[in-house]
Amino acid sequence: MEHAVSTEPETTRDAGAPTTADPETQDAGEPSAGTEQGRGDGAEETGGDASATAADGDGGDGDAVTGVGGSDAEGSGAEGEGEAPAQRSEAEAEIAAQRLERERIERRKAEKQGPISSGGKLSGTAADLLAAVRAVESGAKPAAAFDGPEPTPRRAAAEPVRRPEPVAVTGAGPAAGPAPETVEAVRRVLAEGGAPEALAPQVGAALGEGAPDELRADPWQLLRVAGVRPEQADGFARALLGADCRPDDERRGRAVVGWLLEQAAVAGHTALELPALTAALAQRGVPDDEAAVQSALAEGEALVFQDALEEPAAGRRDDAAQDGEEAQPRPVRVLVGLERYALAEESLADGLARVINALPKESAAEWEAAAATVSGSAAELIRAVAGHGLVLHTGGEAARAEPAALFGAARALGLRAVAACHTADGRDRLAATLTTAEDGSAAVADAGTDVVTVAGLLSGAEGPGRDPEGALELDLLVLPDAPQLDVESAAMVVESLPDGARLVLSGDPAVLWSAGPGRVFADLLAARVCPQIASRTPDPGPIGELVSGIGIGELNQVDAPGKEIVIVPVRDAGEAVHRTVQLVADSVPRAFGVPSEQTVVITPGHGGAAGTRALNAALKERLNPGPGRFGGFDPGDRVVHSPVPGRALPGLVVKADADGLHLECAGEPVVVPKDLVERSVRHGWALTAHQAVGSRWPAAVVVLPGDAAQALSRPWIYTAFGRAERHLSVVHGVEQALPRAVAEVPAKPRTTRLPTLLRAQVPTAH
Fold first, then answer.
1. Are residues 7 and 268 in contact, defined by beta-carbon separation less than 8 angstroms?
2. Which residue did the predictor score with more confidence, 279 or 121?
């Protein structure tokens, strides 16, 4: 049974209770093994499983992987933005960019001394940390305090000599899939263990050429495939191992550790505190949770960290030393995380420290003259950028004019300025703001070529080129959708900046956080390591007033004389679907002149009687009926295409032929091969909030069916309501759950290491 109420993947907190929920959050993240695994609302919403289909843009739709151990597992998902060029697909370019970034991180890792060496036995600090977990769990202290030499403080980063590795995209082909003979051999092993043979390509991609032998030797490696759950891997292992399959098998414990860390990443965490991880292992039936963690660490499948929680007062430490007393040990927390996110977070901290500590090169007088041409928060932003390498800027939709003013000022000073948005729609709106002044004249010449998407910038499909050392050829980079940066994309951006370049992270801190793990923008705001400019520009009109109130926890009555906001009460999900179709097809076009193709429908989840699947089916029947002869699609269908992890491109179906399904996404032709259509394309009249974030429509219909009450949070409501420019209809079936969510359900915390890493490198707060 599907439910619309669950919009975040399973976290370690509820890992002991399998659920059939249909999370919104799956669609937007990175894959765990060859397919896209989403992170949707991440910490904002909770309750579902960890995966969904790649077509889910921001939350898996719960389509099950059946047959593994006699139960269902959900697929994997993706979300995103941007567009795919005709000559070379952006998916291919981004895959190449990500592959090279992984290689760079691997080289960086090799230069560091890790907590343990792969394949070795635990010793030293790692063993001490694990031995101390019992003290942590006792509740006597908020975190473990370890006696021993204090870690040497890291020096503030000076101007580095290294440059980011070049990200070459020209001529690079798509990531090679497993060989046909490997897939066939894996298929036979899966059949022997009673698992769906359709998983063979994913298993081959996850485990490589030796997949058949590795899977037979360790059946729990099946957990590396997105959508497979521990109980299903257990059933597969029982079929292959027979009496040798035991709950205390070291292979099982190690695999469940990795699976739980993947689930945590899906929910937005870059690492887990050790007590939380061991508790989740116990819930999953791992008899010796500590041994399982040790095994995963010893095999290099996870990393362990000791992060200081606070600095003891310097005066107290000096007094103790003078009195001959032993200095108070530093309280720390013990974290365990996956290597890819741990190294990305460290790389991000290093890069940010490099940017923060860089000295401005331009004349302060020139910047001051530029600031004098504007007023208010825009002038403050320009002055802050004049003297600092990293600046944070917060504000709503109307406040985007302020980084636009900064962009224009930088261009007027002769600097190479680039702005990178989360979506193609955001890119186009910002470009229009830059290129047209209030009187209709040209404001910034040729600005459109330097306003890009983040994905296009990283892949090389858009924006400036790179110098011979791989750094982007720019002097100022403005990111107007900074809350949507996860640690991996943020690390790639920062590592690509040349020495001396300025970085401005701008965005609305009240919207949903990134689909991928981390909370980069929120962490930087909390760390206070650089100037922060808070916009005083309010969002206009009744919708702006309503959304601004939601952002501070208040659901206010707003005067809407032009019926900019309409509440449509419904009794059940069936009525919600009926009224939604009526609004999109008839009421909104007739009353407000907004055609149905310019109206978006937003609902909390994919499943349930009023989820995206049910709504899209009803909307297709009314707006573009057809037999769905092209894999369920017809020409003219609105769709969401998810070509790579963390991307969701709204588009239209054009046609289908032997090459695949032809789409038009953001004005660019996209061809989806036949074998990828089912996993990467879904209908797109109705979206989830994470699929919609970063874009706006003239009209929005937000559907809140009764079974969605538990999925609602202040960031979700703020994001969904804020997608409307001229008109907002709320199909309301949750009664008092709506004001309660606005007032009482903030964003859920995410466990990250970025603030601690930054404090070590940038000790002086601004």
1. no
2. 279
pLDDT surpasses 60 at 439: no
State yes or no: pLDDT of 98 exceeds 80: no
CA angle (335 as vertex; 127, 156 as ends), nearest 5: 100
The two beta strands, 697-704 and 724-732, are parallel
The C-alpha atoms of residue 412 and residue 493 are separated, in whole angstroms, by 24
Alpha-carbon distance 204 to 551, whole Å? Answer: 46
Structure tokens at 409: 């000022």
Residue bearing tokens 């370019």: 93
Mean pLDDT, rounded, for 646-657: 90
Alpha helices in 208-273 (DSSP H): 211-217, 230-241, 250-266
How far apart CA 439 and CA 620 sit, in angstroms, is 41
Residue 81 has a pLDDT of 37
Residue 195: closest CA among 224, 228, 226:
228
CB burial of 368-398 (b: ≥16 within 10 Å; e: otherwise) equals eebbeebeebbbbbbbbbbebbbbbbbbbbe
The predicted-structure confidence for 506-550, as pLDDT tens digits, reads as follows 999 999 999 899 999 999 999 999 999 999 999 999 999 999 999
pLDDT digits (tens, 9 = 90+) for 365-422: 899 999 999 999 999 999 999 999 999 999 999 999 999 999 999 999 999 999 999 9
The per-residue pLDDT for 50 is: 36
- Partnered with residue 700 across adjacent β-strands are 600, 728
pLDDT of residue 311: 57
In angstroms and rounded to an integer, the radius of gyration of the C-alpha atoms of the chain is: 26
Which among 361, 368, 334, 489 has a CA at the least distance from the CA of 416?
361
State which amino acid sits at residue 216. R
Report whether pLDDT(309) > 80.
no
DSSP labels, 278-329: HHHHHHTT-S-HHHHHHHHHHTTSSEEEEEE--PPPHHHHHHHHHTTPPPPP
% of the chain with per-residue pLDDT over 90: 64
Q: How far is CA 68 from the centre of its chain?
A: 28
Residues contacting residue 264 through CB under 8 Å, at least 6 positions apart = 11, 12, 271, 272, 517, 751
Calpha distance 698→690 (Å, rounded)? 18
This prediction's pTM? 0.81
Written as one string, the DSSP assignment of 584-652 is: IIIIHHHHH---GGGEEEE-S-SSSTTSHHHHHHHHHHHHS----TBTTB-TT-EEEE--STT--EEEE
HEC string for 519-573: CHHHHHHHHCCCCEEECCCCCCHHHHHHHHHHHCCCCCCCCCCCCCEEEEECCCH
User: What structural domains does the chain harbor?
Assistant: 543-630+684-735 (3.40.50.300)
Neighbours of 663 (CB within 10 A): 26
pLDDT at 435: 76
How far apart CA 655 and CA 209 sit, in angstroms, is 36
- Distances, alpha carbon 557 to alpha carbons 550, 565, 709, 745, in Å: 11, 10, 20, 20
Q: CA-to-CA distance for 605 and 583, rounded, in angstroms? A: 20
Report the sign of the C-alpha dihedral through residues 222, 227, 229, 234, in that order: negative
Give the whole-angstrom CA distance, residue 411 versus residue 596.
Answer: 39
- The yes-or-no verdict on residue 256 having pLDDT over 90 is yes
Helix (H) or strand (E) segment spanning residue 674: helix 674-680
